[in-house]
Design brief:
There is one protein chain. It contains 5 helices and no strands. The chain is mostly helical. The chain has one domain (about 1-125). Helix 3 (about 50-70) runs antiparallel to helix 5 (about 90-125) and helix 4 packs across helix 5 (about 90-125). The longest helix is centred in the C-terminal third of the chain and has 34 residues, at about 90-125. It starts with a helix and ends with a helix.
Length: about 130
């Protein structure tokens, strides 16, 4: 899961940089997903350890941050639907970028929850744990 976290971080960095470049490099707020991506790369690097307690801690931190990121951007998902139906937004690229960040965060959370459930099942099946 640490590799997935690093991949997710790199994906967010790419989204932020692409949003910044594609909007003419005029709006530095387009780089916000890149800042979050850097955090996820750090979380993934910290979770790449043999110590199961530290790995578990950093994976739980990363999934909590991703969940908060998703919850804070739900409105952008609704706005993308409105945008597709012809609604006007002053900065449609920002709406699309925020929605992409939100949806990728949700996917990451779902992958992590699935992994956490599998790890718990494995611990209960393993004798002596």
């Amino acid at each position: 899961m640490a590799k997935l976290t690093i991949f997710f971080g790199i994906l967010l960095i790419v989204i932020g940089v692409a949003g910044y470049v594609l909007t003419g490099s005029e709006h530095p707020t387009a780089l916000i997903p890149s800042g979050a991506g850097i955090l996820f790369v750090i979380f993934g690097a910290l979770a790449s350890t043999e110590n199961p307690k530290k790995r578990m801690l950093w994976m739980h931190v990363s999934v909590t941050v991703a969940l908060l990121l998703f919850l804070s951007l739900i409105r952008a998902d609704i706005d993308v639907i409105r945008l597709s139906r012809g609604a006007y937004f002053q900065y449609p690229a920002a709406v699309i970028e925020k929605s992409a960040t939100s949806l990728f965060s949700l996917l990451y959370v779902l992958f992590c929850v699935r992994s956490f459930i599998a790890a718990r099942r494995q611990r209960t099946l393993t004798p002596g744990s």
